[in-house]
Amino acid sequence: MKQDLLNTKVKFIRGFGDKTRIQILECIQNSEKTVSQIIEEVQASQSSVSQHLACLKECGLITNRQHGKYIYYSLSSEKIRLLLTMIDDVFAEVQTEVACCDRHFEKVEE
């Protein structure tokens, strides 16, 4: 049982390990946005953004609401917003070390 919980935590953290998903989360961090607004800001295809939105929603990180013909996406809770802020704060402190680290990490696309 404890192993299942650990595996689920790893899965949760991997949700933040994708460039497009991080871009989407940062895009809607301070205000809700439509899919079109997210696509424009993230500069990714509609198909890619839709797949990542589905993943983030399924994992409980974001939520959506329909208003007329538009669907608006936002973070699911203030805790997610705080987590993104904390990630930025910690990253600011270790950015140089992370940039130099090559162990166990795939190369990130530029």
Topology:
Blueprint: H1 2-14, H2 19-27, E1 33-34, H3 35-42, H4 46-58, E2 62-67, E3 70-75, H5 78-100
Antiparallel strand pairs: 1-3, 2-3
How would you describe this structure in keywords?
three-stranded antiparallel β-sheet; alpha+beta; 60% helix
Written overview of the protein:
The chain is 60% helix and 13% strand. By secondary structure, the protein is of the alpha+beta class. β2 and β3 form a beta hairpin. The longest helix is centred in the C-terminal third of the chain and has 23 residues, at 78-100. The model has no long low-confidence stretch (mean pLDDT 91).
**Structural class by helix and strand composition:** alpha+beta
User: Shape, please?
Assistant: globular
Q: What is the number of beta strands? A: 3
The helix fraction, in percent, is 55-70%
